[in-house]
Amino acid sequence: MKERAWSARTRDLDIGKAQAKTFDLVIIGGGINGAGLAREAALRNLSFCMVDKNDFAFGTSSRSSKLAHGGLRYLSSYDFKLVRESVTERNWLRVHFPNLVRPLGFSFCSFEKGKDKPSKIIQSLLVYDLLSDWRTPFKNYRRTRFFRPTFFEEFEPAFALEEPALGSLKIVGFYYDTNIDDARLTLETIKESLVCAQGTSVAINYAKVTGYLKDSRGRIHGIHVEDQLDSNGFEVRGKAVVACGGIWTDELMQATEFGQSKIFPTKGVHIVVPNERLGNRYAFGLRSLDDNRSFFVLRRGKVSVIGTTDTDYFKESANLDEPWCTKQDCDYLLHTVNRLFPHARLTYEDIIGTYAGIRPLIKQEGATSASAVSREHEIFASPDGLVAIAGGKLTTFRQMAEELLFSLVQRGHLPAFARPEFTKPGFSKRPYLVGITRAQFDGLIAEKGLAAHASPEQLEYLHQQYGREGITILDRIRTHPELGQPLLEGYPHCQAEIEFILEYENAPRLIDILCRRTEAQWMIWHYKQADLAQKVAEIMARYYGWTPEKKRAEIDHYLSYVKKTIWF
Questions:
Q1: What's the whole-number average pLDDT of the chain?
Q2: Cα–Cα distance between 401 and 343 in angstroms, integer?
């Protein structure tokens, strides 16, 4: 694909374009739902203006378990529809975005005294396979296998075959879901939308909605926006205004005639440790020894990600912008992990980093706990015309966005589609422009003679994170080899990558790069973050012309964030 320059240096031009026309869609929120809606619109030749009060993927869309998965545990509540939607969308993503959406094997264990009996594991996984592969062109990576403890001892030697509270291991179901970078999925979806829109659309971060424009009938047809980077205000108009605000949905609806609260916010945290300390070869779906809630242990290259918790966030805090992993959260996760991986003996000193997010679940009558609230989504509208979507799962973002777009036509906010194929469900199930298999990637770098210009680790990283655009970064390194030198020893990040992000991925702030354009905040040891921040900020200062004071402020802001993720 041909990259489309998209830099914070041209922010004023984007704001000028946002003010100059009436768009088909004004999208409030730059998370995965807003990104998905933008892609659905662009593929059907509809223009959009997307705004977000923070950075793209600032909220839940950069703080999930980093999985595109079917939600195996929802079979226990007979939510077959949600699981079917999730596994089929997962399969499409894996096939058509193979560098970013990668197969990951999971072990689902049955212990003698545990809640999950062998018959339940066998039945659940067979149903999971059936829902995944039945009457769909996109199949799962591999079918489920079942292991006896004697084999599993060799397959996952670090895992306990016996635990006092659970008894002995009886059977293991081994199945596949997929790893992703959630923020990268969101960003690539926005970038693809802008490319497909061919200059008709814009996406602006750090642009906060402060009110709504209404026509003579009192119907919402635009937004008042405050630029969070320079405090200037501007207005955007559209045929339809849609709130894809995630956990901030209630906040966006309060300024309308909606008059009710819809969101049940629950917090989930993750802690990251070196894989060599834990020893898992693949991923595990486990139950807490304290309360039987489900959580994951996920293999992610050289690290293992442990999470997530599921707690009522309003009982902890009303600050939706700043959820944190606490000592209590960490102790809860480590207690079970250390019992089931007895040789690990993880302590706080083993923690590379943490992150926390808030799920924007839909309130349900009678649901009193976070785990009991459904992950289904809902589309609703205020009497004065603001349409909103909330709930759902990261994995089903495409289907949710498609349903939302169809709803806008049905409600009369948009005219009927000009072409019949635009009305067909699944029209957008097509390959991502940057998607590429490793074999295709290796073929391109061999053809261009680029393989010698990066280490094997850098090549793997560039393929996984950037797909076809990894070739652009390698081209920079070939021309200027010094740009390929690692910024930190042992990690793949280099100056060529940072320069690419600044030119093509609209990252005005240091925290944008280290938390969302890359996974550096939680993949790199917290005590190395100051060194990394200094080096990346120096590249940004040259690119943006920052003063020394501005550069220092950006470093301090990011390191303050990192400090809040580590309490010890």
A1: 96
A2: 45
551 token code pair: 């550069």
Q: Judge if pTM exceeds 0.90.
A: yes
Phi, psi values for residue 366, rounded to 5°? 90, -10
Q: Is residue 51 within 8 Å of 225, Cβ to Cβ?
A: yes
244 phi and psi, to 5 degrees? -115, 55
Alpha helices (runs of H) in 411-467, residue ranges in sequence order = 438-448, 456-466
How crowded is residue 433: how many other Cβ atoms within 10 Å of its Cβ?
18
Can you list the pairs that 159-166 forms with residues at least 24 positions away whose Cβ atoms lie under 8 Å? 159/107, 159/109, 159/280, 159/284, 159/340, 159/341, 160/339, 160/340, 160/341, 160/342, 163/111, 163/289, 163/339, 163/340, 165/113, 165/289, 165/339, 166/111, 166/112, 166/113, 166/114, 166/289
Rounded mean pLDDT, 283-291: 97
Kindly state the tokens that stand for 306.
Answer: 């442990």
**Amino acid code (one letter) for 357:** G
CB 221 within 8 A of CB 264: no
pLDDT digits (tens, 9 = 90+) for 347-372: 999 999 999 999 999 998 765 566 66
Tell me the C-alpha distance between 156 and 152, whole Å. Answer: 6
Domains and CATH numbers, the chain: 8-61+183-262+374-423 (3.50.50.60), 265-359 (3.30.9.10), 438-565 (1.10.8.870)
pLDDT > 60? residue 1: no
Compute CA distances 166 → 283, 308, 340, 438, whole Å.
Answer: 20, 21, 10, 41
The answer on pLDDT for 313 being more than 90 is no
8 A C-beta contact, residue 471 and residue 451: no
Residues 6+ apart with CB under 8 A from 346: 273, 277, 278, 334, 337, 338
